[in-house]
Protein 1
Amino acid sequence: GQNIDQPTEMTATEGAIVQINCTYQTSGFNGLFWYQQHAGEAPTFLSYNVLDGLEEKGRFSSFLSRSKGYSYLLLKELQMKDSASYLCAVASGGYQKVTFGTGTKLQVIP
Amino acid sequence: KAGVTQTPRYLIKTRGQQVTLSCSPISGHRSVSWYQQTPGQGLQFLFEYFSETQRNKGNFPGRFSGRQFSNSRSEMNVSTLELGDSALYLCASSPATGFSARNEQFFGPGTRLTVL
């Protein structure tokens, strides 16, 4: 089976940096996604990591360590609009079944 | 390019009834996945279809079924509805171009199902 763990909630201050962690246990790992979901909206793609290391994309970066079953999403220069749920998802198996974590609800405060 | 569309957007049913939800993927996408989202459980994978074949399946009872048509459009059916089936049902399409490809999923707006 698969197990994905993320913190349920986090609070951070506008302009600050926040790191959202994700740990997973899976067989046949292919890659790890991060999605953002604003309340009442559908998830939207943020990043995808298949190899170990840091992938940077503007204010958002994502890190993966396959040996440790660990990933994090780093959000810099936080803005109020970053208040949302952040979903970690693992793709595994020959047909890339995607399993989502329960998500981390991030609240950005002034 | 048009995004993923789902119909209907909202649905109210009573226990015991059945329901069919529809999803039209992004043009050219051959993979369609269905998820159930509830506040307590998050996004739960239902099943994935590719070229009219179910490739992956989650841990849901047989009351939940789906199919995909030759134009990649997909439907999901839930029979004998229960109160616990009330949820947001999301459909996602993916190019599914290869084993190592970044097959990111593009989500539709979802169908909000309420079972009374």
Protein 2
Amino acid sequence: SAVISQKPSRDICQRGTSLTIQCQVDSQVTMMFWYRQQPGQSLTLIATANQGSEATYESGFVIDKFPISRPNLTFSTLTVSNLSPEDSSIYLCSVEQGEETQYFGPGTRLLVL
Amino acid sequence: ELKVEQNPLFLSMQEGKNYTIYCNYSTTSDRLYWYRQDPGKSLESLFVLLSNGAVKQEGRLMASLDTKARLSTLHITAAVHDLSATYFCAGDTQGGSEKLVFGKGTKLTVNP
């Protein structure tokens, strides 16, 4: 199974600033996914990040707000820009390996004041 | 567009009792996943169901999939307090995209 780490684990940010979240996997994977979990809610996919190509964003999410980098097969970053209190959520990255399940990182808990 | 509905959203049960969580999905899904989330934690994979009639069991939890009915169930046998958590089902959109669409989750509380 994949081992995924995320940094930071939590942060408190002021509105108008940005936060970059890092996701590191212990093995090479083709696709990485970024999800958002708003307080008390389910998970919503933000975007899919393939190495060597632009990320694919889901409806309601745009690159200017959530720029993503995928420089290699084990690493990705998600930036949440121009923060507002509505961005307070848990952000999780995930990967899938073959026929196995999709594995999730520990999450980054963001609070925007 | 795939939609996933879970019910119930909240479930309070006594230790030792049995219960079932239901997960309906709107269109064909390649796989059906079940996850557990403890408060303040990430998602722990429980089961992935790949085909019609698939049944998987781990301890007191058993998951099944009926693709014709577009229904998956998570059955809890003789519940214990340690099973208290939120359980999510998710389907993946067809075509090998691996994008998951989650249900709203079922918050399970097992009372002594």
